[in-house]
Structure formats: structure tokens, C-alpha cells
């Protein structure tokens, strides 16, 4: 995986296209963020190396510049002291340091341009990562809501079907049958109770007649005694 590849590839169009094909958008979003975090870590290492190169060239060209200035001052002192040969050698060394200074300055400027470019790209990656991370929460909430709605729709799809309606009709008929059987049983029980009541009444009537006959006999006996 190349450095900054995710920044190049992760456009919203490509994200939406991949999410459309994904079986689980939430897992796909989490994978996107993990990939971006990995790329950011790699980019940070690359930027740090480039910054180190930039600083190295800067130090080298600054040291070469200091030597150019130093050799010129030394050549002047040697010439003032009447040592022209020493002054000549100092100027020759100055010339070599000047060449190094010019070369290191070019290298430094190139390294600085590269480091600045990588810094900017890394900053863009972090900004993009932050935006996508914030958007992920919204997309996850939408995905969960959609899943819940789908489950509810599937659960409700069985309501009001022919099978359910037929099942309720059968149960209604069953209840009507049970009610009819209960009513018939109640009627039979009522008829049985009427017969028992009549027989009991007959028994009670027979007892009264006997008592009444006894009283009549007692009354007749009384009259005879008078």
C-alpha cells in the first residue's frame, strides 16, 4: 500500500460505490477508517524521514557557508601578515566550500519543497479522516435504523395474510361450537333438575296428606269422647 494512496482513492464517489456493494455497511465503514489510520501512520513516518533529510541538508549548507566566510577572513589575515601562499591556500579551500555550499543549498531547497508537500498531504489526510469519522456515526445510525425497519417490515408482512384470516375463522367456528355444546349441556341439566323437583314435591305432598289424615282421625276421636 503506497503512502497517500488512501487520500487519492478515498473519494466520496468511490466510498458510496463500495458501500452499495457491501453486505454490511457498518463493517465496511470501520474497515475504511482502519485503513486510513494505517496510511496516516505510514505517511507520518515518511514525512518524518523527509523532514530529517531537509534538516540535514540545511545543516550542511549552513556549515559550508560558515566555512566560506571563515576562509575569506583567514585569507585576509594571512595576506595582511605577508603570507600570500597561505592566503592563496585559504582562498582555494574557500572555493571548495563555496561549491559545497551551492550544492547543499539546492539539495536543501528541494528537500524542503518535498517535505512541505508531504506535510500538506498528511494534513489533508488527517482532515479527510476526521470528516469521515464524523460522518461514520451518522451513516451507522442510518444503517441501524434501516435494519430495524427491515425487520419490522418482515415481521408485519405476515399480518393479515389469508392463512392468518383462515386460522381466525376456524377458531371462531370452534368457539361457536363450544358455546353451542355448553348451551345444550345446560338444557339437559335443567330438564333433569325439573324431574327431580317434581318427584321431591310429590314426596312432600304425600307427607302432608298423611299428617292431615292423622289430624282428622284425632278430631273424630275427640268428638266421640264428648
From TrEMBL:
InterPro entries the record matches: PspA_VIPP1
Pfam annotation, one family: PspA_IM30
Key words, A-Z: Coiled coil
Entry coiled-coil feature ranges: 26-188
Family: Belongs to the PspA/Vipp/IM30 family.
Designated name of the protein: Protein LiaH
Species of the source: Paenibacillus solanacearum
Species classification: Bacteria, Bacillati, Bacillota, Bacilli, Bacillales
